[in-house]
Amino acid sequence: MRDFNEHTITQAVVDRFAETPDPRLKAVLTSLVRHLHDFVRDVDLTFEEWQAGIAFLTRTGQTCDQHRQEFILLSDTLGVSMLVDAINHRMPEGATETTVLGPFYVEEAPERPNGADIAGPLEGTPLLVTGSVASADGRPLAGATVDVWHADDDGSYDVQQLDALGGLAGRARFRTDAQGRFHFWTVMPAWYPIPADGPVGEMLNATSRHPNRPAHVHFMIAAPGHETLITHVFASDSPWLESDAVFGVKTSLIADFAEHPAGPAPDGRAMERPFRHLSYDFGLKAA
Ligand code: BEZ
Ligand code: FE
Q1: pLDDT at 187
Q2: Which ligand 1 atom sits nearest the alpha carbon of residue 73?
Q3: Residue with CA nearest ligand 1 atom 5
Q4: Average pLDDT of 115-127?
Q5: How far apart are CA 84 and CA 103, in angstroms?
Q6: In this predicted model, what pLDDT tens digit does every residue of 258-281 receive, in sequence order?
Q7: Exposed/middle/buried for residue 90 (C-beta within 10 Å: 0-12, 13-18, 19+)
Q8: Which mutation among 85, 159, 246, 250 tests ligand 1's pocket best, with the greatest number of atoms within 8 A of CB?
Q9: How many CA atoms lie within 13 A of 10 on its CB side?
């Protein structure tokens, strides 16, 4: 076969995958080629545009290192991460909705006892977080691990300022008690821009998009016999809830971070200054 034209080349490439032993790989590649070719035809891609696209993807790869994954950020900002998340996490009644993991999760977060204050050197309004973990059918899950991490009141994560902070802060791992409950203290996180000094930032700029995410606390919750839940809880009074740069906001994940005057906190701590309180109950889907 030869002499392909703009109409016949797609089937020729698809046919070239005919002997692919793995049927799933064959299906994925076939669909990818069909959609890619349709895209090129749809926009009448110029040679200069094709070159610019290759250069953009090359820069995206060159921006990746052990701390930065620009391709995932590109996936996030094009809505692909949340689309994959939606397809793979169709949740039953009673299970908490999922959202993007983001780049700031650290596997080896320190395990802390319930009630601990994880703010360390981070400054800001004190925040009490109380919550529970149950199976989607309502059974409390004792001994579940609850990983939490969040930005500071400037919108930066600890891993973005490790030298200044001298270590991890605003993150920890807790275990639920016999009733499936956990609680900890930290400081109120602020909304923040995703890293926008690379190719993804170029794309956002060129399309007049902002890079901002509404204020949130990340949770990763694991319990035997259940799917690990990766999600955030967003502050209901934060800007950007309607235009999150990575399309991660779901109504069920927005909660009040209630304002309280100085005085006794719900966990008995005597607070000398005003604080905020987030209470959220999580449901895990059975594996
Ligand atoms: C985050 O919430 O930490 C995040 C998620 C996606 C992209 C960048 C940051
Ligand atoms: Fe975040």
Answers
A1: 98
A2: 7
A3: 102
A4: 96
A5: 16
A6: 999 999 999 999 999 999 999 999
A7: exposed
A8: 246
A9: 14
